[in-house]
């Protein structure tokens, strides 16, 4: 285990191909990427990193900074679960991102939103799948309060796009049952409603952040999972951030980590 030679972050690998303290993320990534059950963290000091390796319990570190400007953060101990390049950790110490997705693969986002009464109690849901295998990566379920159907549809799309972006998805195919939103996102229909214009702008800006992005319409009967999530959200039982296919939290809002 080498001594620290200069400033910057250190990476402690507790479970991986090789364990110990590494001075570069590339070196750390080689030990944990694709290694089932890998555990690793970044630290600002040698003492913190050594304590993490020596202690059975997690050593407390400073919260990580957001990976981007959204209100979503990675959470939990870094665990390498899927093959595919893992992104560099956020600055400021804390937990490393989980490589749940591969930038080489295409993913499919299905979303929905609605309001009871229109306007009324509103909610939205979105599910992210690996496109070819249709294996679920995670889902969002957002309780919105009082809103219209179309606002809820856009909010569901935005929440899904944010989650895909923050997971590191680079190629995305989006499907939803709202002809209005799909055609407005394609540029086929104008956005005349002033209340939808900022949401359309936000969704458009998010879509431009992917290397590949398409959006299309799907029948409502084929959108059952996202529809069910939006109904859960309308009932007031939505959750913060992204959950995986076993309903375990992956992200939460920026005011704290999930323990």
UniProtKB/TrEMBL annotation:
List cofactor names only.
Mg(2+)
- Annotated ranges, domain RNase H type-1: 103-235
Give the EC number: 3.1.26.4
Q: Which domain of life does the protein's organism represent?
A: Eukaryota
Swiss-Prot/TrEMBL keywords = Endonuclease, Hydrolase, Magnesium, Metal-binding, Nuclease
What would you give as a GO molecular function for this chain, any one? Answer: RNA-DNA hybrid ribonuclease activity
Q: What does this protein do?
A: Endonuclease that specifically degrades the RNA of RNA-DNA hybrids.
Membership in a protein family: Belongs to the RNase H family.
Which PANTHER family does the UniProt record give? POLYNUCLEOTIDYL TRANSFERASE, RIBONUCLEASE H-LIKE SUPERFAMILY PROTEIN, RIBONUCLEASE HI
Q: What is this protein called?
A: Ribonuclease H
């Amino acid at each position: 285990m080498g001594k620290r030679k200069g400033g910057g972050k250190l990476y402690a690998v507790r479970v991986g191909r090789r364990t110990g303290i590494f001075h570069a993320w590339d070196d750390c990534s080689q030990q944990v990427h694709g290694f089932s059950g890998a555990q690793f963290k970044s630290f600002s000091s040698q003492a913190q990193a050594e304590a993490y390796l020596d202690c059975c319990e997690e050593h407390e570190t400073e919260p990580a900074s957001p990976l981007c400007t959204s209100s979503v953060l990675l959470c939990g101990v870094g665990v390498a679960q899927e093959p595919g390049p893992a992104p560099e950790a956020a600055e400021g110490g804390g937990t490393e991102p989980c490589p749940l997705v591969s930038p080489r693969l295409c993913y499919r986002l299905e979303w929905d939103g609605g309001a009871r009464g229109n306007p009324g109690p509103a909610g939205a849901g979105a599910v992210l799948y690996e496109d070819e295998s249709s294996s679920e990566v995670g889902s969002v379920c957002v309780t919105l309060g009082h809103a219209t159907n179309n606002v809820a549809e856009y909010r569901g799309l935005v929440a899904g796009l944010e989650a895909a972006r923050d997971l590191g998805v680079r190629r995305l195919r989006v499907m939803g049952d709202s002809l209005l939103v799909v055609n407005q996102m394609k540029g086929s229909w104008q956005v005349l409603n002033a209340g939808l214009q900022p949401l359309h702008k936000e969704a458009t800006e998010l879509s431009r952040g992917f290397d590949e992005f398409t959006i299309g319409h799907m029948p409502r009967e084929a959108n059952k999972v996202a529809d069910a999530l939006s109904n859960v959200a309308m009932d007031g039982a939505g959750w913060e951030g992204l959950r995986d296919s076993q309903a375990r939290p992956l992200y939460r809002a920026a005011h704290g980590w999930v323990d």
